[in-house]
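I'd like us to work through together how a protein chain folds, taking it slowly. We need material for that, and I hope you will provide a protein of your own picking. Go ahead whenever you are ready, and we will take it from there:
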Amino acid sequence: MAETRRALEARARKIYELLLEEYGIPEWRPSRSGFEQLIHTILSANTNDNNSARAFETLKQRFAGDWDAVRTAPLEEVKDAIRVAGMYNQKAPHIVETLEILKREEGDYSLEHIREMEAEAARSYLQRFPGVGHKTASIVLLFSYGMAAFPVDTHVQRQTQRLGISGLRASAEKVKDVWEESLPGQTYFALHVNLIRHGREVCRARTPRCTLCVLQSECDYVARLGAWADSHP
């Protein structure tokens, strides 16, 4: 039988607290403006952190930090600048169109106007930009503005499914909804950062280190492994 809402909220809170005990409270300290975070996150799709960071820095250096120059440059030059991030044939037009929209609507390359919006309205606004889904929008809102938005990457999605907080085949958007409905907004940053760390170090995709996991008592995956072991002595 499916968990009641109250039981699910209690499990989510327990997971949040166990991760805090293990990894501590991460410091929220924005390293980029919301606009630059948006461009960087567009570049980060389907690549690793190192490649997206290199592409972002190369783009800025190639055009001397002049976003007008990026917007008006031949598209092939933008593609070449971000090539290391992969999928440059899609990402370059997305970046240029994003710049066009902001220039047309705001007269500048800034997202500071979204500070006055509620989180859900701000997320909907950001998802109007090309190549921006709920994950990208949530990253910008959480990391640049400290808003109550919960990004879901592959680490977060995998662990949520294994833990049983969502269904085994739940989409990233469903995973986002489950966490946002189960915990208050002030927990999202620490939960997201700690789940990422836990996913990289312990709850790995191919070889999860279940015997070292602080979430064993709350994990459906571990319970299933135990049941299988008991039935195969």
About this structure: The radius of gyration is 20 Å. The longest helix spans residues 5-23. Confidence is low (pLDDT under 50) at residues 227-233.
